[in-house]
Amino acid sequence: MTDTYEALLEESIEIAAPPARVWALVTDLPAMSARSPQVVKTWVKGGAVRQGATFTNLNRDRFLFWPTQGKVVDFDAEKRFAFRIKENKVVWSFTLEPTADGGTRLIERRETPQGISDVSLRLTKIAFGGQPKFTGGLKAGMRQTLAALKAEAERP
To answer: What Pfam families has UniProt attached to this entry (predicted)?
Structure first.
């Protein structure tokens, strides 16, 4: 391994909207480019986001662009949506928890159950200034994505 990394990144937010509304937003992968600072565009093979669906993202960090391939690995309606990125083996997920007031607690995670690929670790060190800097950007991006989802879900 060329660099250490955090095995779990997690951010959460309370949203004044029911889980069904939030679910519709987090599973709309093509619209994620409007919410995530890293995603430029997403193409879902066959168009439908569901268990086993595959997709391609075009990602960006400042002047660097790179594609990734994802596969939906968990699709539990209004509860949990997760996908694995082929290139680095990480799993991104959104967990929805209903709140007592009819809203939703939305948790975004990046997990590394199989570690992170050596190629990805090397590229992060070379192109993005190392894991601490890259991870800081991921955490900030997660907060920005959750805030955008909240704003959209709460919009009348």
So the answer is: Polyketide_cyc2
